[in-house]
Design brief:
By secondary structure, this protein is mainly α. The protein contains three helices and no strands. The radius of gyration is 16 Å and the shape is elongated.
């Protein structure tokens, strides 16, 4: 059980980190490109960067949130996780062509924040349950 708890906590921490990286990329990239135009030629300047982050966020979220919800039985955590990941997926595929640059930025920040909140809650509820036993 201790190893399982550590793996679950580690998955939550990685998912929060990936969501934070997604949000930081969304906020900082326009500034960074204006200061250092060569960044736009790197992987960080590509639109596909958000899709690549989703390849990390989706399995981490599915793993840790599903195990956590089974453990602490608080389904609101799962709801926030699905809502956040769904927002990120839609934003990545609709992009600024449909949402506009500001709409894409807002939706990405909203989705990343929602996913991060879900994982923080999941971590706290799992820790609370661990202490109760």
């Amino acid at each position: 059980m201790v190893t399982h708890s550590k793996n679950l906590a580690l998955a939550d921490k990685f998912a929060v980190s990936a969501s934070t990286l997604c949000a930081a990329h969304c906020l900082a990239l326009p500034f960074m490109v204006s200061m250092f135009p060569a960044i736009s030629a790197t992987v960080f300047g590509e639109e596909a960067f958000h899709v690549w982050l989703l390849w990390a966020i989706i399995p981490l979220s599915a793993f840790s949130l599903s195990l956590g919800c089974r453990r602490h039985k608080n389904m609101s955590v799962g709801f926030f996780g699905v809502l956040g990941v769904g927002t990120l997926v839609l934003t990545a595929f609709l992009g600024h062509a449909v949402l506009g640059e500001n709409g894409e930025r807002f939706a990405t920040l909203l989705g990343a924040t929602t996913v991060a909140v879900a994982h923080v809650l999941n971590y706290r509820y799992c820790r609370r349950d661990e202490c109760a036993h």
